[in-house]
Every structure is written in C-alpha cells, then in structure tokens.
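To fix ideas, we give here one paired sequence and structure record:
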Amino acid sequence: MLGRVTAVEVIREAKSGRTKPVLILCETDTDGAIEVFCKLSVGCFEGVTSLAREVVAACLAIDLNLPVPTPYLVEIPSTLSSVVTDPDIAERLGTSSPVGFGSAKVGNQFSVWTSGNRVSESMLPSALGTFVFDAVIDNADRKPSNPNCLVAGDRLRLIDHELAFPSTVGLPGWRPPWQVGALSWLDRADGHLFCRHLKTRNLDFDPLRQRWSAISDDRLLEYRQAMPPEWGAAHPAVEEVLDRIRNARDNLDGVIAETRRVLQ
C-alpha cells in the first residue's frame, strides 16, 4: 500500500515537531528523487509502534479520501549516518530502525493553520471527515493550539498521527466513539481544530458513510501487511488498532449520531 523509498541524503531537521523529523532526499523506483519528512523510531514515544500507528492512520485517511501527504516507508542504509555532519541526526539514524515513516514534503505554498483561517464550503467535506477520523482514532493532537494541519487556499494537508490510537487497555473513563458522550472531549476549549467551524453548518454525512462502509476486512488486512518486518515489535498494537477501526465501521451509525450531538 505504501511506496518504499531509499534515503540518500539528509537535508535538514524539521523546523518543528516533537519527534524531530528529518527532511531526507530519497530515491524511488519510478519518480526519481523526492524530498520526504522522515520520522525515525528513536525519538518517537513508542519507537516502531508509533511509526506503525502512523502507517495505519495514513492508510485509513487515504481510503477516507482525506488530504494527507503521500506516505512512504523509508529505507535507511546503514552507511548514511557516517556521512551526516550533524552528530544528533547521525546518532538517531544509526540507532533507529532501518525503516522509517515518511511523508512527502508539500509545496511551500502551504502554511500552518492559524486562528484566522476558516472552513470554506469546499473544505467542509474534508473538515467533517477529519473530525470523524480523529474521533475514531482518538487523535487529541489536532487542536487550535497544535493544529497539525497545513492550508493553502481551500486545500488542506493533515499531518502527524504519531499519538493516534493510544492504547485503551485499562484506560479509565474511555468509551468507544459510538456511545453517547464519548466525543465530548472534541468540544472543549482546546478541543478539535474544526469543531467550532462545523457547528451550525449544513453537514452531509452520506459520502463519509459510504467511504467508511467500503473499508472491508480484507482491506484492513492490507493495512497489516503494509507493516515492514523490521517493525515486528509493533504487531500487538497494530492488531488492537485494526480492531478499533473495524468496530467503528460496524457501529458507524452510532459514531455519526454522537458526532451530530457534539456538533449540534
């Protein structure tokens, strides 16, 4: 599902991001050289498990027609760290998994969403789809104070899903997103980025419903198969994540009803 590229040159560290992504020039089999922001397992809160969650989130977002940068698995040659002049980057390259998670660099016309931005009518399907997507994956990391959303005119790009799908095993107070009250956290003062923009709007859930319903069990198996063997430690977390997506799909009417309640 994800293309696989090979890192050939480190350009620089990203200007922001808790995991310190690295902008890397990569070779592809078909598209020549491309620039990719690569997350390394060293620096991620849960190592390769965090990278695996990024992969599942990217696969799901693409199937839901949400605007994410093109995702890649990034092969990191063992020799790359020896030619990097920045000692911190070299250390992380040398001690990370030999496969990282990459997102294609978007054009310079995109900037970080700010409080002055508004959801236009043409953005509305993506904003609503993103709201439900983040509700299902428990992504509390797309909010006004930390938007993780880039914008250029009416075009959006959703980034950074490392903190999505936190384990709910033994988590007090957690409820699945189809239960009444489960999504109230999205409507707090620093809740979801798009919450206040969606309130009072004329919302069409039909396209969203069709895309979620089209995600078959076989498709979820492809998400699992997208994981590189180098990330074997992430397998239990991936199974939990896929179960959550499957359960949300099977209880989609409840998810939509709870979304409507929050946005009324």
Summary: The chain has eight helices and eight strands. The chain has a mean pLDDT of 95. Residues 123-145+163-263 form one domain.
